[in-house]
């Protein structure tokens, strides 16, 4: 019985039905045992016949028993045989049915039953019922009509022939026969058990018939009832199985997900894409920097739909097209910002290297680390499972199922997928995220894709492009989230698909580039600052770094270059060609299909040798780049880039709409890349004469500026091309200039100084271009320095030439000659790092530089620190330093104050106008001019915010006998009468050597004027010039000042009261004063006051020699 039950799966029967079958088998076994016992133990002794002679009783009993058995078992088939046959056939039918449908039931239990179609289970179940009904009816008929009587009689009349052993019932022998009355003692028992068999068979048949009728009637009413899933769930009533299976499925799924997450976290920790291109061989002790995704990942600027580029004629504006500053439409976004409940099918477009793949991997890693898309995170959407599919891993011609596609996805933990996991995914598609990366890398058949039909089932096998289309259109895993990334070049292949949203990754904004560099540098803050200053000060590099991979390449390349330079860590690698030669190769090899998965060593990137196929491609790119710049076309058509459309160095723009046909549009990944390849074209394809003529004709054309810079660098190794192609263009003309600004020391009469300047104003831009070119080529640099030393000039003037920090590096390398005393770099953009480069000139042992103007150059406290270190150097000859309109703050003022305390410092004039210096900075400067080492004669603090407190510190300083200050300019410093009082007391002191005091545009009223008037009455006061322009002085203040200049102790020569509130009364007081013989005033400025014409005439008619400005 146990063997029979092993073949009967409970889940394949209705619960009651299964119990009934088991009960029937048990009863059948009992019947079999009973009848077998009867057969074995029913002896002749149980059959008795009355009237038999004792001698023949056994013979009579045997003959009558045989006659009895022939009458009640006509075919001699034992009842136990009948029972066992009944049992075996019915059990066999049940077992065969159970084994046939068991896989189907298992499959339905494992998978999402709601998605199953077909009615095979219903048919099989009804078929086994029907067969069992038929068998039951047959056995009932056989039992009742053919094999056995309904009753086994206990009384039996047995006729036996006398003298024979054969029984006879014939009438012929009646007279010779003996009638015996026989009795079967087991007849009643046998009859009972036969009725029992019949009853059980009848009940089973009736019950099965009722169930069959019920099934067919319900099927007629509810057609879906016949469906496998519905039938399994409703009729077989496997709730307990379903609940247990669901729990098991959930457990298996969670185990799968946890294992998947572990692998993702491990595999994405150190990506190959983030390994330095300059890793050395094992044992080389390489210091190349390998990054982790968590360490370096920076969010990208993403916009909805496609971006259009408007390339202007101005090159600087063209470069600004690339990096984006943050605004409301281009805030940096992570991938999770792009997915929501309504946007489940998302397309991400981006040019090569823009960060599409890393963006997907970061999303996948954050999901694996439970940072994003968790059910408990409050996110709009959450995912239970995530799969990352790289198109390039698949063959477009081979068929595969969706399940196989998932198994072959990146970071999949096993070689197969458990059915319970697979079915869980089907049942919960809304929790599935699929990332399809790099559609552009997939060789797909558009005709096949468009001809795709509806899937026949979840297991349907098709090429990847069809499966992908079914996923996007919702024909498979309808509610799953599908994210696709592609380059713009492949958009036509998915143009027929409808995405909920489309985005384009624009890369990094300027702020993101800074953030990326900081992350790249990590704990080495100084290196990070150096990298940022170098990149941010060079618009070419800054705009190139909007592509994240270029930021990686730039940081890696610059770090590698700086590592081999034996100088201070803030030194710049200034040769742009060196950087680009590396960057172009790294970018091309990383993002070109045939090289992407190959390993390249540091030597591969640093070597100038390229594979022959790559060199040929680069030649074609050079031709396209050159022709594009020559024709002023930064947007190229499909015909112009034919054969190069798939190059990683091109970006596919949105098609240009035309009347009949849309035209493909491309541009180089970056303008500087186009310029680099144009330079490669020039150096490789033009003869010496052609190149010389081309350069001389276009050197002043801004669009070729960087091309020629690259050209000069590429000519370094082209010995057949003479360096004079560039160096002969260096201007030799100078010009004489005369100004008091060139004075290196304070003079009473501010005499003008004459200098010889190079270059001339009209040739400055040309010289800047040439200096950048010369710096790229060491041979050209040496030749240019030789020519400059032969020229007679002492002032280099690059005022307002848009110089950057990198340009300063080039400038220092080229003009480092002995005869330069004056350097005017006002109104550029050199920044702290450019300032560091200029400081090299001050530290040079042969330097004669004594005058330096760095007005309006975005200098900070850091720049002031570099300058302080330079003027402390014993080689420094600097006497005049102009830092007007920068932002050194009180910290920078402190650095400079510490420097002018040093006995090496020869600084006489320091101009710190408009530098955001507070009273704290004023205190540092006051302490410095107290020092006996300080040689400062002129200090200009115009347009800061030193206030009365700062004025008090300075007043105490000029009281000191060590102070040599002659001129102090405190214009526009929020100084009130209190500050004026402090200064007045100071100039009364006999130690004070101050000759000029400028308090223009402060809050000095009549009270402050009175304090100053009292001071210049003192015989200790040496003040010659007092400026009180635009103060709050009225007639009362004018009267105090008039009384002071009447005094014979007053040495004032110039008094400027322009723009006050002095009326005719005040003018009258001043008129009397200047007519006094004691008055030494030579200039009086009363313009822009409230003086009438009559009073002006009165002043003009005075007999004084004082010059009046009214």
TrEMBL record:
Which GO-annotated molecular functions does the record name?
ATP binding
Membrane-crossing ranges are 16-36, 77-101, 121-142, 192-216
Output this protein's name: NACHT domain-containing protein
Lineage, uppermost ranks: Eukaryota, Metazoa, Cnidaria, Anthozoa, Hexacorallia
Residue stretches making up the NACHT domain: 344-490
Keywords in alphabetical order: ATP-binding, Leucine-rich repeat, Membrane, Nucleotide-binding, Repeat, Transmembrane, Transmembrane helix
For whether the record's keyword set contains Membrane, the answer is yes
InterPro entries reported for this sequence: Connexin_N_sf, Leu-rich_rpt, LRR_dom_sf, NACHT_NTPase, NLR, P-loop_NTPase
Pfam families in alphabetical order = LRR_6 (PF13516), NACHT (PF05729)
* Keyword flag Cell membrane: no
């Amino acid at each position: 019985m146990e063997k029979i039950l092993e073949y009967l799966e409970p889940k394949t029967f209705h619960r009651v039905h299964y119990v009934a079958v088991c009960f029937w088998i048990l009863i059948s076994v009992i019947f079999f045992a009973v009848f077998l016992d009867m057969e074995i133990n029913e002896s002749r002794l149980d059959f008795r016949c009355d009237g038999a002679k004792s001698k023949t009783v056994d013979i009579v009993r045997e003959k009558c028993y045989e006659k009895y058995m022939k009458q009640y078992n006509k075919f001699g088939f034992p009842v136990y045989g009948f029972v066992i046959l009944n049992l075996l056939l019915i059990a066999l039918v049940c077992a065969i049915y159970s084994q046939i449908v068991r896989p189907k039931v298992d499959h339905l239990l494992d998978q999402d039953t709601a998605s199953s179609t077909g009615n095979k289970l219903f048919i099989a179940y009804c078929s086994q019922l029907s067969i069992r009904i038929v068998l039951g009816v047959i056995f009932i008929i056989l039992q009742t009509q053919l094999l056995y009587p309904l009753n086994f009689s206990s009384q039996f009349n047995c006729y036996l022939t006398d003298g024979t052993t054969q029984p006879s019932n014939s009438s012929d022998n009646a007279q010779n026969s003996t009638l015996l009355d026989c009795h079967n003692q087991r007849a009643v028992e046998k009859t009972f058990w036969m009725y029992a068999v019949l009853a059980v068979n009848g009940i089973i048949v009736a019950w099965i018939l009722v169930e069959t009728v019920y099934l067919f009637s319900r099927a007629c009413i509810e057609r879906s009832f016949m469906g496998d899933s519905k039938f399994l769930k409703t009729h077989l009533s496997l709730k307990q199985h379903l609940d247990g299976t669901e729990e098991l499925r959930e457990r298996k799924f969670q185990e799968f997900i946890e294992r998947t997450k572990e692998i993702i976290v491990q595999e994405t920790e150190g990506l190959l894409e983030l390994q330095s291109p300059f890793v050395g061989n094992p044992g080389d002790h390489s210091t190349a920097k390998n990054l982790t995704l968590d360490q370096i990942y920076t969010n990208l600027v993403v916009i909805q739909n496609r971006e259009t580029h408007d390339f202007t004629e101005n090159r600087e504006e063209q470069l600004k097209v690339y990096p984006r500053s943050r605004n409301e439409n281009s805030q940096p976004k992570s991938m999770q910002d792009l997915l929501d409940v309504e946007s489940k099918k998302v397309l991400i477009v981006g040019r090569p290297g823009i960060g599409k793949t890393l963006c997907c991997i970061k999303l996948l890693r954050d999901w694996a680390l439970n940072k994003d898309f968790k059910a408990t995170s409050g996110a709009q959407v959450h995912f239970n499972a995530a799969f990352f599919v790289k198109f390039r891993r698949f063959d477009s011609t081979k068929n595969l199922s969706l399940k196989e596609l998932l198994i072959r996805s990146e970071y999949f933990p096993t070689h197969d997928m458990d059915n319970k996991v697979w079915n869980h995914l089907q049942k919960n598609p809304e929790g599935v995220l699929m990332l399809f990366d790099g559609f552009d890398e997939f060789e797909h058949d558009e005709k096949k894709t468009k001809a795709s039909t509806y899937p026949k089932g979840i297991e349907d096998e098709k090429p990847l492009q069809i499966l992908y289309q079914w996923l996007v259109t919702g024909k498979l895993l309808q509610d799953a989230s599908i994210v696709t990334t592609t380059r713009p070049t492949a958009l036509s292949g998915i143009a027929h698909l409808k995405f909920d949203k489309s985005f384009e990754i624009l890369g990094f904004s300027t702020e993101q580039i800074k953030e990326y560099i900081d992350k790249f540098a990590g704990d080495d803050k100084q290196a990070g600052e150096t990298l940022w200053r170098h990149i941010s000060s060079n618009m070419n590099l800054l705009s190139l770094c909007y592509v994240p991979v270029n930021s990686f390449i730039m940081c890696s390349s610059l770090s590698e270059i700086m590592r081999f330079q034996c100088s201070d860590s803030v030194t710049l690698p200034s040769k742009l060609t060196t950087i680009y030669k590396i960057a172009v190769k790294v970018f091309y090899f990383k993002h070109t299909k045939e090289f992407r998965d190959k390993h390249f060593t540091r030597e591969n990137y640093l070597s100038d040798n390229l594979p022959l196929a790559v060199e040929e491609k680069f030649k074609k790119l050079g031709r396209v780049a050159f022709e594009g710049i020559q024709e002023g076309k930064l947007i190229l058509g499909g015909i112009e880039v034919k054969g190069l459309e798939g190059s990683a160095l091109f970006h596919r723009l949105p098609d240009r709409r035309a009347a009949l046909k849309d035209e493909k549009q491309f541009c180089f990944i970056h303008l500087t890349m186009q310029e680099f390849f144009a330079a490669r074209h020039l150096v490789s394809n033009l003869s010496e004469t052609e190149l010389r003529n081309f350069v001389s004709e276009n050197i002043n054309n801004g669009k070729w500026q960087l091309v020629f810079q690259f050209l000069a660098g590429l000519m370094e190794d082209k010995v057949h091309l003479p360096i004079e192609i560039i160096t002969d263009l260096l201007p030799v003309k100078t010009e004489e200039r005369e100004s008091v600004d060139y004075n290196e020391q304070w003079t009473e009469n501010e005499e003008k100084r004459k200098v010889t300047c190079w270059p001339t104003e009209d040739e400055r831009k040309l010289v800047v271009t040439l200096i950048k070119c010369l710096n790229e080529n060491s041979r050209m640099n040496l030749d240019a320095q030789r020519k400059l030393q032969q020229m007679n000039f002492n002032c280099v003037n690059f005022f307002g030439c848009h110089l950057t920090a990198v340009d300063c590096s080039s400038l220092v390398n080229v003009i480092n000659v002995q005869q330069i005393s004056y350097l005017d770099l006002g109104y550029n953009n050199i920044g702290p790092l450019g300032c560091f480069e200029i400081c090299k000139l001050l530290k040079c042992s042969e330097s004669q530089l004594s005058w330096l103007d760095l007005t309006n150059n975005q200098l900070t406290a850091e720049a002031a620190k570099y300058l302080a270190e330079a003027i402390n150097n014993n080689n420094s000859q600097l006497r005049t330093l102009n830092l007007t309109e920068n932002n050194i703050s009180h910290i920078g003022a402190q650095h400079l104050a510490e420097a002018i305390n040093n006995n090496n410092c020869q600084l006489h004039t320091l101009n710190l106008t408009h530098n955001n210096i507070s009273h704290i900075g004023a205190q540092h400067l006051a302490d410095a001019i107290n020092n006996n080492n300080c040689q400062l004669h002129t200090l200009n603090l115009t347009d800061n915010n030193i206030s009365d407190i700062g004025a008090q510190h300075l007043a105490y300083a000029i009281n000191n006998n060590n102070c040599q200050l002659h001129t102090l300019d405190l214009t526009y410093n929020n100084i009130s009468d209190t500050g004026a009082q402090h200064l007045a007391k100071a100039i009364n002191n006999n130690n004070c050597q101050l000759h000029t005091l400028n308090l223009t545009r402060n809050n000095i009223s009549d009270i402050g004027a009175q304090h100053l008037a009292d001071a210049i009455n003192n015989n200790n006061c040496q003040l010659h010039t007092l400026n009180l322009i635009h103060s709050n002085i009225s007639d009362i203040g004018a009267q105090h000042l008039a009384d002071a200049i009447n005094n014979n102790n007053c040495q004032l020569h110039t008094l400027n009261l322009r723009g006050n509130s002095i009326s005719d009364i005040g003018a009258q007081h001043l008129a009397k004063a200047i007519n006094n013989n004691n008055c030494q005033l030579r200039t009086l400025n009363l313009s822009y006051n409230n003086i009438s014409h009559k009073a002006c005439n009165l002043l003009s008619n005075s007999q004084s020699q004082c010059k009046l400005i009214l």
